[in-house]
Amino acid sequence: MVVSLPASLGLGDKISDGLNARHERVEYKVFPDGESYMRMDFDVKGEDVILVQTTYPDQNRRLLELFMAIRTLIKRGVHTVSAVIPYLAYARQDREFLKGEVVSGEEVLELLSLAGVRRLYVIDVHKPEILSKFHGVSINILPSRIFAREVESIGLTKPLVVAPDAGAEHRAKSLAGLLGSSHMVFRKFRDRYTGMIRHELPAALRLEGEDVIVVDDIISTGGTVSEIVQYLRARGASRVYVMASHGIFVGDAVRRILQAGADSIYVLKTVERLVEGVTYLDVGDEVVEALRSSMLRD
Q: What is the number of domains present in the chain?
């Protein structure tokens, strides 16, 4: 059984069709004081329920709605609860960078476990290792095949795939493997006096006339991506495409990236906020396949 919460992105329909499952939508409104109201006027007793809810924008509201729905379903006697969360908020705080910091990514995952979620499905979480903090089964859905299909539709032949840092290398390597291309990782340098960060590729690398794809998990302010795009253009890259799993796009991020020289920006449809100038790619088929595969393993 699939239950779509207020920020389901229409994925509930895709999942229910793909699994031939019953689909229900939560009745929802926001009170004048800003509190969320939800009503689930349908029978769930004994059901295996798949909840669908992304968590951006308004991370705090969306997470609280998710937690309240989980607890309500369990009190009503569901058999199991699984959660499909296309964008998992707070996951970037995956360790204690400064003494005393709350590691919010761990806390969110532990709260999902304590609330009663048995299986968790997320799309390209920032650091996959953090999913070990979830006490049930976790599935991290990678977008490489989605991006590869889009690259082929553009008509690029073996473009160079680059990652902005070592943490994103597995994304670049996976996409390059599907395309039969090479991949490179930018080296990151921080000025010890100013704190400014710069990115560089090996000096001997020739980019004149090359098509390049920059791949990452999240674009927030666009600062890192725009710097990398500008660097690639200055080194002679013919066309530069940006592909990321999650487009947060704070402020004028899209404008910054395009003005730096990007030909196009592609992100997955994992958040509610859609921004002009960006191409959004559907994730429904990959989510359905991940759900079906995990069920078959059971």
A: 2
Does residue 261 share a domain with residue 149? Answer: yes
Same domain, 119 and 23: yes
- Shared domain for 117 and 158, answered yes or no, is no
Q: At a CB cut-off of 8 Å and minimum separation 6, what does 187 contact?
A: 199, 200, 201
What is the CATH number for 188?
Answer: 3.40.50.2020
Whether the Cβ atoms of residue 48 and residue 1 lie closer than 8 Å to each other: yes
Residue 196 has pLDDT above 90, yes or no: no
Q: Which of 45, 75, 188, 269 is catalytic?
A: 188
Residues 228 and 262 reside in one and the same domain: yes
Is 45 labeled as catalytic in the residue annotation? no
64-108 pLDDT tens trace = 999 999 999 999 999 999 999 999 999 999 999 889 999 999 999
Looking at the structure, tell me whether residues 149 and 199 fall in a common domain: yes
Q: Judging by beta carbons within 10 Å of its beta carbon (0-12, 13-18, 19+), is residue 183 exposed, middle or buried? A: buried
- Distances from the Cα of 263 to the Cα of 179, 211, 233, 240, 254, angstroms: 19, 10, 11, 6, 12
Tell me the per-residue pLDDT of 128-140, one tens digit each, with 9 for 90 and over. 999 999 999 999 9
Is residue 203 over pLDDT 80? Answer: no
Place of tokens 């073996």: 158
Q: Are residues 125 and 151 in the same domain?
A: no
